[in-house]
């Protein structure tokens, strides 16, 4: 294995109290009723909702709301980013240990491939001191609307790292992550985020193309060492 590509949400950081909360509160603002965590997850499991602005807009529409996409995006960002990264983004707990990223960086080229805007992703990496360990960020701005499950972002990262798809792993927590990895020709690793049943969500990720499913991203070094030894 030459390169490890990582998703951020649900893999590096816990977004239950940030992105998921922002979706629920944004939808509630425009419809009067917040969707449950289960309803939000069900949409994620359908695929095609990697972008939480689109997810929020869809849920508003399905509930009979009439807000425009731009109105929803503005309300969402006010909650999530806040005025100067003082919103829900600042409350996200880490899911991966710094030692795990250090171990990966010693053996592999690392990149972050995320649906977040680059500015948000880079701020979060700096917040935890991970920016030197994961120096390459391919975010929303570089993907030109071709977000996961489109493999475009993964292909950009692989090209920048000089790695061929069979030499790379992509670790993500959603069906769109797994489908993007498969479409890119990478080995797909599913990570079950906190709050979801490992068995049930693991099966969902396997059905979407995951080769293996982990209950924590901290198991990645051991998994990859096993694969490298074959």
TrEMBL record:
InterPro entries recorded: HAD-like_hydrolase_sf, HAD-like_sf, HAD-SF_TIGR01548, HAD_sf, PGP-like_dom2
E.C. number: 3.1.3.18
Pathway: Organic acid metabolism; glycolate biosynthesis; glycolate from 2-phosphoglycolate: step 1/1
Record SUPFAM superfamilies: HAD-like
Swiss-Prot/TrEMBL catalytic activity: 2-phosphoglycolate + H2O = glycolate + phosphate
Keyword terms: Hydrolase
Keyword Hydrolase appears in the UniProt entry: yes
Pfam families: Hydrolase
Keyword Translocase: no
MF (Gene Ontology): hydrolase activity
Family: Belongs to the HAD-like hydrolase superfamily. CbbY/CbbZ/Gph/YieH family.
Protein name, per record: phosphoglycolate phosphatase
Species assigned in the record: Rubrivirga litoralis
Taxonomic classification: Bacteria, Pseudomonadati, Rhodothermota, Rhodothermia, Rhodothermales
């Amino acid at each position: 294995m030459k390169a490890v590509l990582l998703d951020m949400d649900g893999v590096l950081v816990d977004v239950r109290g940030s992105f998921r909360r922002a979706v629920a509160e944004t939808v509630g603002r425009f419809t009067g009723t917040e969707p449950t965590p289960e309803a939000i997850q069900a949409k994620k499991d359908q695929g095609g909702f990697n972008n939480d602005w689109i997810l929020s807009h869809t849920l508003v529409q399905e509930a009979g709301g009439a807000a425009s996409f731009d109105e929803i995006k503005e309300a969402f960002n006010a909650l999530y980013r806040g005025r100067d990264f003082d919103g829900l983004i600042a409350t996200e707990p880490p899911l991966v240990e710094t030692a795990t990223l250090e171990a990966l960086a010693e053996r592999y080229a690392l990149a972050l491939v995320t649906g977040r805007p680059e500015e948000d992703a880079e701020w979060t990496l700096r917040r935890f001191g991970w920016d030197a360990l994961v120096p390459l960020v391919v975010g929303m701005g570089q993907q030109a609307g071709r977000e996961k499950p489109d493999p475009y972002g993964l292909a950009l990262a692989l090209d920048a790292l000089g790695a061929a798809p069979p030499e790379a792993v992509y670790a993500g927590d959603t069906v769109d992550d797994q489908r993007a990895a498969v479409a890119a020709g990478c080995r797909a690793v599913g990570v079950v985020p906190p709050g979801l049943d490992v068995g049930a969500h693991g099966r969902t990720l396997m059905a979407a193309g995951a080769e293996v499913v982990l209950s924590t991203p901290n198991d990645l070094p051991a998994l990859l060492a096993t694969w490298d030894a074959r």
